[in-house]
Amino acid sequence: MPLPERIQIKEVGPRDGLQNETEILSTEAKIEWINALSQTGLSYIEITSFVHPKWIPQLADALEVASAIRRKEGVTYAALVPNLKGLQRALQADVDEVAVFMSASEAHNKKNINKSIGDTYRVLNEVIEEAKEEQKSVRGYISTVFGCPYEGKVSVDDVLRICDRLFEMGIDECSLGDTIGVANPKQVQDVLTKLERYFPKHSLALHFHNTRGTALANVWAAMELGYERFDSALGGLGGCPYAKGASGNLATDDLLYMVQEMGYNTGIDELKLREAASLIQGHLNKELPSHQMSIVNRGGIQV
Q1: pTM higher than 0.85
Q2: Residue 176 belongs to what domain range?
């Protein structure tokens, strides 16, 4: 199986990273960081979430942030949207892409969204229809694809059915999430080998967490099958709410190092990315857990 011709890195730190941080950043700090990310060469930045502030207080200023950032041509600015009310706020901010979300396991879906999978379909269908009417692209997130903190193993057939339903509703891309960081390379290839019989590879993205240190290995496993789209958070921001003390998302800077050393041109400026990482590290007043930032923090690389 040939490797992909290109790799696209989708930065989710301002949303998936910050929503798991105990430190609540100021609106100005978030805007400054997103503006810095826009100058790195990233083509996709998920900037915030329009989930009710009661559930994600870290992103309560979603409308203010999304409305005030300096947008750069060629960059897609996306936001997570749970329902029609959230969509109206996202449209008011004129985000480029709307992201909807649900889980592959019933127990996690009820815990995370407070709805059954069946009830969630109805809500998401309304969001997708209206977003499409407003000429917005739509991304679907499926959590717990590779394992659930409540149910354990998740059936690939369940993932397949949910993917199929979301694409029928009109999403443009589906991101497959390893929510608790339990995936291994063989499992990744087994799941993707089954899904690729039904969906084009370019319509699927992978969202790995590095809870057990396997995120980059899982990226390589997906690349070996020709997959090219990967979510990541700069510096490895975030965490897993179901695994106390676990590291967070796959780190954008670690992913960039790996694929650049393999000869891929992502269009991302490594120095500017490092500067953006140092910026958010300063705002959070803590060292970021990525390998690249560990080197920087030890003085091994001068920013």
Answers
A1: yes
A2: 8-297
